[in-house]
Amino acid sequence: MELAQFKVLSDGDIRDIHEATVDILTNCGVKILYRPMLEFLKKKGLCVDAEQAIVRFSRSSLEDALGSVPPQFEVFDRNGRLAYTLGDRRPKIAAGHNAVFCDAPGRARAESDPPVRRPGGDREQHEADLFLDRQLPDESGLYRVDPGRIPG
């Protein structure tokens, strides 16, 4: 079953958020504590306050950077396996009331299903359980992640 695209923000809302973000990045800047990155950004022509470790981005630098982002790209997990593709118009994460949902590869698991065993031991098993939460996906095809089970 194909569900209609869910649209939370209007085009005007998205423009307003973008403009507010540009305002923050150009006027307030971002604190970057990694000195080699500060030097790199300064060489790229950005305004760097080395004493405060703050970089301010010009509108043109932001537009150039956004213009260079491909419309779609692959994201890999820490083991080099394809995790998902961004830009394929499928939701990857969404917030719900007191819950977070994510797109999890593989088949849906019911409460009665045995836990998925992944190579790498308890940590990876714990991560698998966090993301799949031993349940079926909701109507959007996303799995609920229980924030209370995320290690802090």
Task: Jot down its keywords.
single chain, 2 domains, 8 strands, 3-stranded antiparallel beta sheet, 4 helices, alpha+beta, 152 residues
Tell me about this structure:
The protein is an alpha+beta fold. It has two domains: 11-67, no CATH class; 73-149, no CATH class. Helix content is 31%, strand content 18%. The strands form three sheets. The protein has a three-stranded antiparallel sheet. A three-stranded antiparallel sheet has the order 6-7-8. β6 and β7 form a beta hairpin. 5% of the residues are buried.
What are the SSEs and their pairings?
Elements: H1 11-28, E1 30-31, H2 35-43, E2 47-49, E3 54-56, H3 59-67, E4 73-76, E5 82-86, E6 93-96, E7 99-102, H4 122-132, E8 143-145
Antiparallel strand pairs: 1-3, 2-3, 4-5, 6-7, 7-8
Considering DSSP H and I runs of 4 or more, what fraction of the residues is helical?
25-40%
* Radius of gyration from the alpha-carbon trace, in angstroms: 20 Å
Ranges where pLDDT stays below 50 over 5 or more residues in a row are 105-114, 116-120
What fraction of the residues are assigned to beta strands by DSSP? 15-25%
Query: How many domain regions?
Result: 2
Question: How many β strands by DSSP?
Answer: 8
Total number of helices: 4
Q: Order of strands side by side in the largest beta sheet? A: 1-3-2
Largest sheet: 3 strands, antiparallel
SSE sequence, one letter per element: HEHEEHEEEEHE
